[in-house]
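Postdoc handover notes: sequence design on the structure in folder B. Input tokens:
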């Protein structure tokens, strides 16, 4: 938890970091308590601002993130304040990321259409074939488990290159003890349901890969991993986690473990989208 307050409307200064004028965002469709503060206009060097604000999070209690939305804009969900009531993140202490992802994996690899529960031998061959291709090299019948933690960090040049590529963006601040907790504390959701299971997975990625929340949109989020996977085997296991978690990966419609794994070895920015 955090004792930080949502900044008031107007410009914000945190240490040596200055942000232009912004406003409070409230939960419950704008009727609830303030849950975040967001700039009214894009910040030119948003990546640098995000990194600098991340560095002082321990002192400020405010987690920075960049805003995204629908159709290239940020009106939804930010200006329309399309958020549910904030959730109590103490429940995250009792959620296990591996168990959550295992349940997601089972849900995505189980035949539903025309499934006869009384027929143990039933199998939709087309579904089984396509799912097996999506989760290769793993078996669709068993979640492969969590990827091993990575120790090697991006070097300064790699990190700078990522930040330079982010371009202008509106910047948000939310009180939270750690970046993964922002989504439930915002009342964010991808299907009008709790964000706690997603936050539990994000906590696990923070611990294993140094992956911090980077961008939040209507049904899309991104994280920036400071210790991304370096080997194909590690990338494949992490890709299996991400395939189980979301509908599309990478912001380019990736739907299968092999292509997600290849993307993970190319970029430390991981983007997730839900339909």
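Designed sequence:
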């Amino acid at each position: 938890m955090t004792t930080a307050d949502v900044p008031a409307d107007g410009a914000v200064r945190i240490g040596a970091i200055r942000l232009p004028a912004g406003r409070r965002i409230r939960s419950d469709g704008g009727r609830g308590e303030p849950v975040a503060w967001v700039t009214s206009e894009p910040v030119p060097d948003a990546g640098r601002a995000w990194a600098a604000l991340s560095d002082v999070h321990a002192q400020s209690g405010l987690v920075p993130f960049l805003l995204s939305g629908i159709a290239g804009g940020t009106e939804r969900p930010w200006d329309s304040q399309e958020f549910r009531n904030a959730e109590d993140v103490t429940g995250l202490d009792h959620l296990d990321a591996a168990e959550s992802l295992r349940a997601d994996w089972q849900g995505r690899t189980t035949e539903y259409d025309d499934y006869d529960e009384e027929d143990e031998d039933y199998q939709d061959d087309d579904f089984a074939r396509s799912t097996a291709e999506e989760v290769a090299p793993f078996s669709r019948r068993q979640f492969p488990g969590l990827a091993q933690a990575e120790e090697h960090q991006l070097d300064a040049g790699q990190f700078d290159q990522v930040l330079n590529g982010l371009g202008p963006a509106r910047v948000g601040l939310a009180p939270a003890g750690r970046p993964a907790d922002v989504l439930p504390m915002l009342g964010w959701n991808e299907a009008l349901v709790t964000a706690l299971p997603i936050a539990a997975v994000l906590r696990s990625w923070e611990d294993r890969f140094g992956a911090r929340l980077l961008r939040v949109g209507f049904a899309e989020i991104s994280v920036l991993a400071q210790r991304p996977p370096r080997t194909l085997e590690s990338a494949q296991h992490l890709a299996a986690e991400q395939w189980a978690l979301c509908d599309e990966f990478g912001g380019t419609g990736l739907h299968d473990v092999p292509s997600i794994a290849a993307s993970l070895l190319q970029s430390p920015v991981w983007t997730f989208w839900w339909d």
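Context for whoever picks this up: The two ends are 30 Å apart (CA to CA). Don't rerun without checking with the PI first.
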